[in-house]
Amino acid sequence: MSNTKLRIATGGAGESGLVGRLVYAFMAEMETKPNFEPFTAVWIRSDTAASFNHLAENAADLSITYHVMAESIALRQGITDRSEYAWRDHFMLVGPRSDPAKLAACQQATRPTIYHLFSQIFCAAVGETTSNEQVRFLSRYDKSATNIKESSIWSAIGQTPWSHPYSSWYHCDVLFPFDALRAAAKLQEYTLVDRGTWYAVEEWVRDEMTIFMEGGDDEGDILLNPAHALVCSYGENKTMANLFVDWLIRPDGGQEVIRSFAVNDNILYSVAPT
Hints:
Layout: E1 4-10, H1 12-15, H2 18-30, E2 40-45, H3 48-56, E3 62-65, H4 68-77, E4 80-96, H5 103-109, H6 114-125, E5 137-139, H7 145-156, E6 170-172, H8 177-187, E7 190-194, H9 195-200, H10 203-208, E8 209-214, E9 224-232, H11 238-248, H12 254-260, E10 262-263, E11 266-267, E12 270-271
Parallel strand pairs: 1-2, 1-3, 5-6, 5-7
Antiparallel strand pairs: 3-9, 4-7, 4-8, 4-9, 4-12, 10-11
């Protein structure tokens, strides 16, 4: 008989190591409880869209997702009956240090928004640049929170480069966060990435690239990437999932782990707002 009592579906926070750190700390506290029985927890590698599917199929006991509207739909559908703000990640626009789209010059001349920078990438990609380097943008194109966010930004400036006729400068590749960032570094392409992935990936990737814009903790920041923990309504380990989420949102529990979680001396996430 399987001893798995907690199945957590999510993407980048698993790759960065945060999910593992949280689970170990949770288990350490559970071990102090009377009648504790050791159990196994499993991370299911997925993106935001797939994480909802895992709940619907009872393949996960809880999912960490990053899209508030989709989370509200999941609640209405009944595939989850509990959603808690878990932590804050942040999107970043990154790209090659050579900066063929001249984003750095744009930043020096004005105080641009993310929409200005995406517009600059578009103009440079279709030929309005003095650079001899090709300008390309890598999209994960996988229904992840990152893919949804960058698609919404392109749409907001009146561009849908994935539509027919397809834009050759828009590179679609269905990859998980670390692999996508590695590909962008090797191919010298701009891309949108979350802060957790950026600071947890290998140093050579960051050596090849630079940050042009990064989100903050303001709830109105377009580049804020809020994470919510959703408990499966009919999960076979629902009691354990709820215990984990109870601990996750406690200031002296999961929030303390998140506050201090660092990779390469960089704090990756912010705690949930109070």
